Amino acid sequence: MTTKKLIDNYLVDLIDCVETASDEIMQIYKSDYFGHEEKLDGSPLTIADTRSNEIIINTLKEISPDIPLISEENFNEENLKSLSKTYWLIDPLDGTKEFINKTDEFTVNIALISNKKSIFGIVAAPVTGKIWHGSIFDNNEYDSNSVEKLRIVMSKSHKSDNDRAFLEFLSANDIDYEIIEKGSSLKLCSLADNQADIYPRFGPTSEWDIAAADAVLSSFGGSVIKLEDFSELDYAKEKSILNPYFIAFRNNSIKGDFLPLLGDFLKKLV
Question: If I label 92, which of 59, 189, 196, 253 is the partner at 20 to 30 A Cα–Cα?
C-alpha cells in the first residue's frame, strides 16, 4: 500500500484515535491526580502520557502492522541505528509541563515519516477539541501574502537568551513585530491557522515535538528551515533525535522577505 493510500484509507481512524486519546487525557486533566514523575532526561511524565501512548500505539499497530513506530515514551537511542524508510513518529502528549501547570496548551501528535521527511501529520488539542491534519498530498488554500508587522510565536515555557537577542536584533533593525505566546505544537499550528507568521526556535526540541505540525504547516504553504544551512528540516537522523535550531515561516512570501534580513543573525547562533 502506498503512503498516500494509507493516509486516505485510515484518516478517519487516525482522527478517531487522537479524539480517543484526547478524551482520556482530559479525564486525567480534570482529576486531582496526574501520577507525575520524571524520566531519566529530567522531562516530566504523567499517566496521561502513558495512556495516550497506549491508545495511539494500539491503533497504529491495527491499521498498519508492517510500519514501525517510534514514540517519545518508548524511545531509546538504539532505535536510531535501525530506522525504517517509513515509520510513525508519536508524541502522545506534547507540552506535559503545560498539562501539569494547567495552561490548557498541550497536544496529541502523530506523524508519518518517509525518506527523512514528515509527509503526514495529525495534531489534536484536547482542551478545545480542535484537530489539524495535513500531508504532502494536500493542496490547501492559504494566504500567500507577506506582512509589514511580524507576528512571532514563541514558547510559554522555554525562553532563552537567544530569544531575547533575536528580539533585540529585530528592534535594532526597525523590524516591527508582536509576540504571541503558545505552548506545545500549537506554535506551528498557529502559523497554519494564519495567527502568526514566524516561529524561531533557538533551543532543544525532539523530532516528535514538531513532526506532525511540520506536515500540517507544509500542507498550508509553510516550512520549517534549519539555521545551519537554511534547508528544510529533515528527520530520521542516525546520531540524534534532537532537532537543530530552526525557524518556521507561514508562507514563502514571508520567508523570502525576512530570511535575508535575519540571515546574518541566525547564522551566528549555529
Answer: 196
